[in-house]
Amino acid sequence: MLNLTYEYKLIPTDAQRETLDLWLKICCKVYNFALRERKDWGNSRKCELNSCSIKHEYIISPDTPRPTFARQCKSLAQAKKKSPELKLPHTHVLQQVLRQLEATFVAMWERGHGFPRFKKRMRSIVFPQLNLEVMRRDDGNDEVNLPKIGWVKLHLSRSLPEGFEVKQIRVVKRASGYYAMLTLQLDVDVPQPSPSGHGLGIDLGLGHFLATSDGQLIARPRFFVDGQRKLKLLQRQLKRKNKGSRKSHQLQHRIAKHHEYISNTRKDFHFKTAHQLCDRAGMIFAEDLNLKAMSAGILCKHTLDAGFGQFLSILSHVCLKQDKFFAKVDANGTSQTCPRCQTHTGKKLLSERVHKCPECGYETNRDVAAAQVVLQRGYTAVGHIAVNFGEGK
Fold first, then answer.
1. Are residues 362 and 214 in the same domain?
2. Quick one: which of 221, 199, 204, 130 has its CA closest to 169?
3. Partner residues linked to 355 by β-bridges
4. Which pLDDT tens digit goes with each residue over 160-191?
5. Is residue 362 part of a domain?
6. 329, 326, 327: which is closest to 289 by C-alpha?
7. One domain for residues 268 and 210
């Protein structure tokens, strides 16, 4: 089964924009109410009857079952009789909100994520497969059919691939407007790329964004740091405005648009770098980094600004699209190992940017040496003969 996601800019009318805004507010209320129901049920069963808190305690009947996705969907159907507001959005849209809440609890139980938080606002709604249609007209007014909203204009920047079926549409609200993310599905088996061709190891860092085993060094653009001065000026102006005023909302919108611009710039750089690497190699190996630990260190701002996790995800996607093999290898000791003789060099300071082996005398850039070690470990993992760097030097 092959799944693709195509993103297009929506051009709704004023009435359609008001409808989408109202649906987002209702979905936010449903999400928070369902979360509160689950949280209260859990708090009522935290302690024994003879050891309740002195101040207060949640009291819910012991016969009350645990709120699950199925039970909350039934409660939602009953709540529509009392609250006409819940009848405005499509039923499946509200059910997808409850499914999203269920997914957050599953991620907490199985993958160690944090406890779900209440939402201040919803940023997207999901339309599952409900006669979803995308029509490309000759006059350029392309449209998409959203249930209970009707035909909404969109900018079809690229044609939909033939044979694919639209499974769902996620409408996302951003500072620059509404976007439709179309999930396309085709019942076909896609073979995974096999390891062949020229191998390339990469080492990610903050001195240089990326170093390759071929000796290429790519500088790290400072997306957020460069845009931080403008953000400070806007936020300083916002602090002097009355909360809830028209000027306050205008400044909040400008700040959100600047954050979106920074995010788009970062993603554009990641895609261009990933395509550049795939054009030069048939196999790409990267370190399996502990990104969560890196994001909590003293250099957390610069680590998050670089977006290593997003880049590795994009690189994996581009490699699959171009039929290039991609794999991650163990990251322990890559910068402490000589790629020529495998000696542990024992570098103690990050300021030591030159790799010079005390045993064989191999000398090169520290990040390039780490990338070469990554390539050797990748060759070993796929069963290829590892190259020996620095021969004859």
1. yes
2. 130
3. 364
4. 888 888 888 999 999 999 999 999 888 888 78
5. yes
6. 329
7. yes
52 part of a folded domain: no
The verdict on 77 and 153 lying in the same domain is no
* CB 17 within 8 Å of CB 169: no
Please check whether residue 336 lies inside any domain of the structure: yes
Indicate if 149 and 107 belong to the same structural domain.
no
Q: Could you read off the pLDDT of 103-153 as tens digits, one per residue?
A: 999 999 998 888 999 999 999 999 987 667 777 676 667 888 888 898 999
Domain, as residue range, for 234: 199-382
Q: Which residues of 183-202 are buried (b: 16+ CB within 10 A; e: fewer)?
A: bbeeeeeeeebebeeebbbb
CB distance 363 to 339 below 8 Å: no
Quickly tell me which residue has 């994520």 as its tokens.
113
Which residues on adjacent β-strands are paired with residue 217? 211
Clarify whether residues 174 and 286 are in a common domain.
no
* The predicted structure's pLDDT at residue 256: 94
Q: How many domains is the chain partitioned into structurally?
A: 3
pLDDT band at residue 393 under the 50/70/90 scheme: very low
CA dihedral 79, 83, 87, 92 (to 10 degrees): -30
294 and 266 fall within a common domain? yes
Q: Which of 88, 123, 158 is the last residue of a domain?
A: 123
| Residues 104 and 117 placed together within one structural domain of the fold | yes
Domain assignment present for residue 9? The answer is: no
**Is residue 12 pLDDT above 50, yes or no?**
yes
**Are 95 and 224 members of one domain?**
no
- Are the C-beta atoms of 136 and 156 separated by less than 8 Å? yes
Burial of 214 (0-12, 13-18, 19+ CB in 10 A): middle
Buried residues in 240-277 as b, exposed as e (16+ CB within 10 A): eeeeeeeebeebeebbeeeeeebeeebeebbeebbeeb
The pLDDT confidence band at residue 392, using thresholds 50, 70 and 90, is very low
Give the contacts of 76 (CB within 8 A, at least 6 positions apart).
30, 86, 94, 95, 98
Residue 283 CB partners (closer than 8 Å, separation 6+): 195, 196, 197, 198, 199, 200, 324, 325, 326, 327, 378, 382
Q: Which residue matches tokens 């030159």?
A: 354
Residues of the chain above pLDDT 90, percent: 49
